[in-house]
## 1
Amino acid sequence: MASPLVDRLGATSVEHAPVIESAGGLVWRERDGRLQVQLVHRPRYDDWSWPKGKLEPGEALNTAAAREVAEETGKPIVLGVPLPGLQYLTPEGRVKRVHYWAARRASRDEDRPALTARYPLQPPSRDEVDKKSWLDVADAAARLTRAADRGPLEALVDAHADGRLATHAVVIVRHGKAMTRAAWHGTERDRPLTPVGHAQGAALVPVLAAYGVTSVVSSRWERCAATIEPYVRASRARPELSDHLGEAEHERSPSRVAATVRDLLVSGRSSVLCTHRPVLPTVLDVLGQHSRRAVANVLPSRDPFLEPGDLLVAHVAATGKGPRVVAVEKVTPPVF
């Protein structure tokens, strides 16, 4: 599942109540200097709300958000910064939790690798959504049927005012579960993934696609290259495999790893970097140097930093002082 390092929703306050997890997004754009968002109308409830929906079995929250928004708006999107979620009791006595992200329309050219890696878009059903509307944010606040839905909108407006809304993602992945050193009799750089590790690599694909990853950078060592290979195949991206992201080269020259991370922060392209546990302190140090204080304070600080197959999504905004990490999420993709 996906969760921000600072939980947007917190634990449910209703003990023993069945929980329904759902996810969606606030799709935004700028027109003539005005911030606009997209609302959908659901005929079943006769309400105007944000596009969202329930998770499918084995689906990560962020993957569900990208899928549901695309299905209900009819256009693929790319997830941005996480927004405050909502939780409430349904008339049946269940707890409904809705997780939201800011989102932008995907570009067929710039986001082609991520779109290629996704499942085909299902056409929206008019039984679920019969109208869609782009509105200035003040008009959207007035149009929303539920007052609680204005909470994520207010956070979106604040992020836009602070220059934290237009972002690209730099995703840090620790390679999947590998054979133990004791069980492997080859070289360290050739130590392979276990079957679980291969499943973790496959589980990364829809998550990376949801964040619009177009650039792939990885340690050349087998366990990293194999972890990222499913996304490379699905997206048809051309990976950059590097020896200096391996454990031995990092020990000799951590500055080259730091330079690679800085390049990804500056690039403006959503990217993924796959590396090893001993390399993560250098990676996280660079992220911390380019982070807002509130973000730097919640970056992983204890070994092992990330578990095998886990990823950290850093949302990066361009500022006058250079790239700034304005939000982070830690994700454990579901593996079956």
## 2
Amino acid sequence: MTEISADDTRLHEPGMGDYFALLKPRVMSLVVFTALAGLVVAPVSMHPIEAAIAILCIAVGAGASGALNMWWDADIDARMRRTAKRPIPSGRVEAGEALAIGLALSGFSVVMLGLAANWLAAAILAFTIFFYAVVYSMWLKRSTPQNIVIGGAAGAFPPLLGWVCATGSMAPEAWLMFGLIFMWTPPHFWALALFVKSDYGDAGVPMLTETNGRRSTRNHVLGYTLALVPVALAIGFTSIGGPLYLAVSAILNIRFLKGAWDIWRRDEGQAEADNYETEKAVFRQSLYYLFLHFGALMLETSLAPFGLGGW
């Protein structure tokens, strides 16, 4: 039997980077940005310190959701090339540690948001964590090809949360921002699913590409993109929109719709011939689609006092 030295053991001790990776920082960055946008464009201003604490709580809540998701999905992650190096399947963090971190951060973020902002915002954050960790991760992800469609609601709540933190209430503008992310999520993930090939099938995840076929997935990408466009443009005609947002949104949606059309026109032979270049390009485009939409909304609000933004 090979003797394991103390130095070898230390090589496998988790570091801060491993624990931070549990929180899905890339997903957290989108959550923080869209929540900040919802807070900034709201008609009621928060004190800067209270606003900063509120955004921090939302970020921690998003991280808690990520940790709970990684704890539950460790078996799936281990079978997918894209996720096999995550902290739990790679053995750097114990599953029990991830569960404890997720639960602790969930409770902390909800209570602190209630104290820093209001209890309606805290309740929405608690529901968001529950929806992502339980409804999506534990139920939808493994049971239906519509997992991304329904589960996308969890990722759509941050701008609504930011709005409620500032105002203590909901409004059509907040729900339209929710709808923008909700409708964007399916074509974003299905474009990815088209070129990650057998990853989802190997892990037993009923992604649309595996259950309905790749032709059906291409149809769905185009269909949901067509449904996304009017939601994105409608925001431009509300109190938080304006000419700048409309111009940015029109350009982004023309490009995104063109990409979805190109995906729909292709068959698998064409896609394999160029190594799924079109699908990869649409996925990359989808990554900055939301950032530019919400950035334009915040710019409209910033220019409004100078008579340059908004209607």
## 3
Amino acid sequence: MELANWTKVSAFFLKGFSGYPALEHLLFPLCSAMYLVTLLGNAAIVAVSVLDAHLHTPMYFFLGNLSILDICFTSSFVPLMLVHLLSVQKTISFIGCAIQMCLSLSTGSTECVLLAVMAYDRYLAICQPLRYPVLMSHRLCLLLAGAAWVLCLLKSVAETVIAMRLPFCGHHVVSHFSCEILAVLKLACSDTSVNEGFLLVGAILLLPLPLAFICLSYTLILATVLRVPSAAGRRKAFSTCSAHLAVVLLFYGTVIFIYMKPKSKEARVSDEVFTVLYAVVTPMLNPIIYSLRNKEVKEAARKVWGRTWTSW
């Protein structure tokens, strides 16, 4: 009987904010504007990092990867969410739900690892400046970034396959605006302890461990910077790391606030509102933080814009 019910699942209904029409009308223009800024800002970071030869360094290579991640992460659910905010039919196919789940899990997990890699890059640049070009070679950059993308994708595919192979029975209403894996697991009519255990192990590997590594890296960086004799040297070192630290605090702060607080048995619309803001606001602010706090990015952007305007 469970197998029969499982084979009949062809689509899910994403409840989202359907019970709050006024909130839907408020969120649509707000999320549309933030999504547009996210696309333009992160695309500009990628373009500047590629087109300006002065930015062909490990730091901006990883920054370009972070911008691509933010574009992929928001694009995995925001366009469909915007459509659902204005429509009565808020369904998503079974295959579409699995794809959305896998993409959001993969990009979010990769960002956790990539932020730790960026902290390691800053540690080598400041604490091992003479050996930095050798230690952080182009090959190592490709290896670290590629490993983060591939391993997190494999992890997310495994989590998605295990979740979507469960038998679903009863209603197929997901109490979320996207196919968030925990919300989908609530619809399963079989034991989900294996899935939850798998997710817990992944969360431990991707949240406390990278965050601890980042904190250790910046503790060593701070100890090194405080030994710099000149005030100008200290300001330059702090300026180099401040943008990355701001992004780390923003990302992990919102993730911990949303996912580490006590869970209620019933879905609350406030949780979804905070999730929308976190998932859309954070990727939007990343390029703004880097462009405002980084003189090299602003100067490179002016050069690229000047060359483009001249060619036109």
